[in-house]
Amino acid sequence: MALRPLTLSSLAIQDYRGLQTPTEKTLILRKSLPEVFTCSFHTIGFKSMATWQQGQQIEVSITDLAEGGNGVGRYQDRVVFVPDTVPGDRALVRLTRVKSKYAEAKILKLITTSSSRIRPHCIVADKCGGCQWQHIDYDFQLEAKRGLVVNALTKMGGFIEPPVAPVLPSPQSLAYRNKVTYPLRLSSTGQVQAGYYQKGSHRLINLNQCPVQDQRLNPLLANIKQDIQNRGWLVYDEQQHTGTIRHLSFRIGRRTGEILLTLVVKDNNLPQLKEQADIWLQQYPQLVGVCLNINSDRTNAILGKNTHCLIGKPYIHEIFADLKLRLTSDNFFQVNTEAAESLLSAISSELNLQGHEILVDAYCGIGTFTLPLAKQLGQNFPPGEIRAIGLESQAGAVEQAISNADLNDINHVEFRVGNVQKLLPEIPFQPDIVVLDPPRQGCDRTVIQTLLNLQPQRIVYISCRPVTLARDLQLLCENGIYQLTKVQPADFFPQTSHVECAAFLTLSH
């Protein structure tokens, strides 16, 4: 960018950068117009900005962490996102994707390291896309996640000093996942591989164990891959849409130890599958069932619509919040059982239910939160009088919720199948409390409007994405109808940048 002669009096000093001598340091000077100039401290000459292009190598200090987990630094008023860095790091990086105001970069060398940087527990942590933060001290992970929530609520939601509590830590920061699903590939030498994709690609990182999954699953992963190899079963090729086996999925009951194995396949071309499934059931006493899910579409979606049990049971048992649950392979349940219980306990404490309230749980899934909360209601009412209603669009999840209610003798709860935006206005009574737990994209605008019309005394909004939470909370609070009283983050996904939240709103009038 060509520079025209300017006087220092016509500019405002934007960044002093520790000037020591006239020739050692530069000042970045800005006019009132959005133009950035670089000049030496000598007033006799100006020099143009350094180039800003792909492949350029620069030094950058990391000062923050972004929602996706990347470190954030600044270079000449532009933002640089660098994976595998920590606030406090200074690194030499190469720009890999350049836009006018920001760039993505790859770390080449650490110049200085942050005091919050640790050695990852996984040998492929720098390559595997499963975790983003294994190189970050766990206490700092919790601080960073609270920061992500505060940042979203202030910048996206417009809240001034939002009431965000410290993050509830996961009882286990490793070996916490109760469900894992691995894509399969063939290596260049014809070996069956299973693992997670490399960051930003569809190149598979082969794993025989994973430090964030329940460690009781490790022997099954390595051995079943070998069994597939020995059987000569064809592994799915996503480019050609050929082969059969697409994914291996494991679900384990943390309290019971029961394991369910599901093979996701394009078709049924698996000779002697029933025989092999029987061998697995005998070989692994904790394995209670083997299921087959058919996904014949050319898609990135993992599961197809049809799942059936080959041998054993189509579900595992789990103990959650003192309830006995049946969990199938294809319905959603929080992957961190213990952390979900911690958040549920915080919700129960905040609600302080007296037993007379009427509660609606929108997007209830299999009733993970509906059933424990419903258990606290209706003790002083006739059996069968409905005190809680769960709304869910997935029929299979509702069937499972009803089954789990029966299993625990909770008879004052009702579940309805359909879209929340249609079902919520049809509730036949005035709810005192509405619990929301929508998908990552947040609530439909019609759901927000229905809540503003219904005006329940309290709303609990559970979210796995702070930015959509902030957007929806702003809509609920913008006219002063509701007041945000507390946001309780919880760490359901240690070693990653993901954070769960429960936001509590109270009717203002």
Provide the fold topology.
Blueprint: E1 12-15, E2 26-30, E3 36-40, E4 46-47, E5 57-65, E6 71-75, E7 78-82, E8 90-98, E9 102-112, H1 138-155, E10 179-186, E11 192-197, E12 204-206, H2 218-231, E13 245-252, E14 259-265, H3 273-283, E15 287-294, E16 306-312, E17 315-320, E18 323-328, H4 337-351, E19 359-362, H5 370-375, E20 388-392, H6 395-407, E21 413-417, H7 420-423, E22 433-436, H8 445-454, E23 458-463, H9 466-477, E24 482-490, E25 500-507
Parallel strand pairs: 7-9, 14-15, 19-20, 19-22, 20-21, 22-23
Antiparallel strand pairs: 1-2, 2-3, 3-4, 5-6, 5-8, 6-7, 8-9, 10-11, 10-13, 11-12, 13-14, 15-16, 17-18, 23-25, 24-25
Helix pairs in contact: 1-9
What's this, in brief?
Belongs to the class I-like SAM-binding methyltransferase superfamily. RNA M5U methyltransferase family. This protein is 20% helix and 30% strand. The protein has helices at 138-155, 218-231, 273-283, 337-351, 370-375, 395-407, 420-423, 445-454, 466-477; strands spanning 12-15, 26-30, 36-40, 46-47, 57-65, 71-75, 78-82, 90-98, 102-112, 179-186, 192-197, 204-206, 245-252, 259-265, 287-294, 306-312, 315-320, 323-328, 359-362, 388-392, 413-417, 433-436, 458-463, 482-490, 500-507.
